[in-house]
Design brief:
Structural class: alpha/beta
Radius of gyration: 22 Å
Shape: globular
Order of helices and strands: HEEEEEEEHEHEHEHHEHEHHEHHEHHHHH
Helix content: 25-40%
Length: 470
């Protein structure tokens, strides 16, 4: 089985989504999954989104019957303030307000990890959710035992139990083996098999301290296929799997980055087995929240009042095998916009899917860096703000603000805009010219970006603009 096999065609994808004449009934009580006997259903919503036009769309997990909001809250990026020492810390009061608004509007799935927000995400989420009845929300966290020092059995178990303490709970609703695929089969064996940790987690599920067991996938497709083979053979049952899915990665993930796998394949393999999919990176690290003017014009022509981001979220939520779509909503306006999209969700029509397919083809032609701003490469030992550098570069490309030659009639204006914007987005001491090529960041990048090479390219381009020799 190969990760780039197209075993689910566009026609079968549309059929699986239930779009076309059936799109209006996609959020009805129950639907069959195309190509199998498993079923998924949509629960009646009891919360009306005050930012939307109807109730929050809910999906039912066939493993446990959980009624899960299609919008999931990702706790990887949280609002910050400065403490008395001038250090940036999580703004807990703002986090509490965001969670309060999310809960009020039907969001009941919250995703975190021991490594998010410099190790403080679980603690912050535990505080915010402790104000509500435990049965009113679902917690998803991860065993993030990336470092070899956490591979010994006792260290991995210590991490798991610390998550329970930080989250102020005695059970985890959705437990993930974090970033499976990174490091290939060797890392899989070291992290979960040789130390018996997979057996431990399965036992915890049996004891009820884990209600759903799954994994998040990044990287080597051999590992993804192997874990699904384990599921098929009955050696372990996966209750859900978290994958990266958006309208660009649907067919272009491998094209843009050889290390990645097209979401068409990932979703197709899960869907035909009846395994619910949890979606990460629906905006591809924010890249799909700001698109090229050509694509933007088409979006606005069709739905003039909708945000650019809403198109990506509607696409990610359209497949009926999707349980929830995660979004890292740092600001209230992000949360409110997503509530408008998912309260209630209007699945993409066949015509809109065709348009997004064409938009993805167009976007893929632009040489943006496939960074999702996950922060796994940070902190840089030499102080670079790697995600911010890539973000500014990608934003300028998407908005057509990158001069390609001094012969360009708009050259001077674009040159100044790029350089001024660069200094505003990234402090001078944290820019690409300070990269020494140590490569410590490379092994941590889920997208497989050779970061030092990209830093060299961007620095070379910036110097050409500064010296006016492009």
């Amino acid at each position: 089985m190969k990760g780039n096999d197209k075993n689910i065609t566009r026609r079968s994808f549309l059929k699986a989504l239930g779009v076309g004449a059936a799109s209006a009934t996609m959020i009805s009580c129950r639907r069959k999954i195309a190509g199998g006997d498993s079923s998924t259903s949509v629960a009646p919503a009891t919360h009306r989104g005050d930012a939307g036009t109807g109730p929050m769309t809910m999906r039912v997990n066939p493993s446990t019957g959980d009624s899960v909001s299609i919008l999931g809250y990702g706790f990887m990026r949280l609002p910050e303030i400065e403490d008395t020492k001038g250090e940036k810390v999580i703004d807990q009061e703002q986090v509490n307000r965001l969670v309060e608004h999310a809960m009020k509007n039907g969001v009941n799935y919250y995703d975190t990890s021991p490594v998010y927000c410099k190790g403080q995400s679980e603690h912050s989420l535990g505080i915010a959710l402790s104000r509500y009845p435990r049965e009113s929300y679902y917690i998803a966290t991860k065993l993030s035992n990336f470092s070899p020092k956490t591979w010994p059995r006792e260290e991995s178990i210590k991490m798991y139990r610390n998550s329970l303490r930080e989250l102020r709970t005695d059970y985890i609703d959705y437990m993930l083996l974090h970033a499976i695929g990174q490091g290939g089969m060797e890392a899989w064996n070291n992290r979960y098999i040789a130390n018996g940790i997979l057996d431990f987690l399965v036992a915890e599920r049996k004891a009820g301290r884990i209600r759903n067991l799954g994994f998040s996938y990044h990287g080597d497709i051999e590992v993804f296929d192997y874990l699904l083979k384990m599921h098929d053979e009955g050696s372990v049952k996966w209750d859900f799997v978290q994958i990266q899915l958006n309208y660009l990665d649907w067919r272009h993930a491998k094209e843009l980055n050889e290390r990645n796998t097209d979401a068409e394949y990932l979703y197709g393999e899960l869907h035909r087995r009846g395994i619910p999919a949890v979606i990460m990176e629906p905006l591809l690290g924010g890249r799909l929240a700001s698109v090229n003017d050509h694509v933007l014009a088409e979006f606005k022509r069709r739905r003039p009042d909708d945000s650019v981001a809403s198109w990506a979220f509607r696409f990610a939520g359209t497949p009926e095998g999707v349980l929830t779509v995660l979004s890292g909503m740092t600001y209230m306006e992000h949360l409110q916009d997503n509530l408008r999209t998912y309260s209630s969700l209007e699945p993409c029509t066949p015509d809109e899917l065709d348009m997004l397919d064409s938009a993805a083809d167009y976007i893929a032609k632009f040489p943006t860096v496939p960074c999702t701003a996950c922060q796994y490469c940070m902190p840089c030992p030499y102080g670079l703000d790697i995600p911010a550098i890539f973000s500014h570069y990608n934003k300028c490309i998407n908005e057509g603000r990158v001069p390609s030659s001094s012969k360009d009639p708009e050259y001077e204006r674009l040159r100044r805009a790029f350089l001024v914007g660069y200094d505003r987005a990234v402090p001078r001491l944290r820019q690409a010219d300070h990269c020494i090529g140590c490569r410590q960041c490379v092994k941590h990048c889920p997208q497989g970006i050779f970061i030092p090479g990209k830093m060299e390219e961007i620095d070379r381009y910036v110097e050409q603009l500064k010296q006016n020799i492009l």
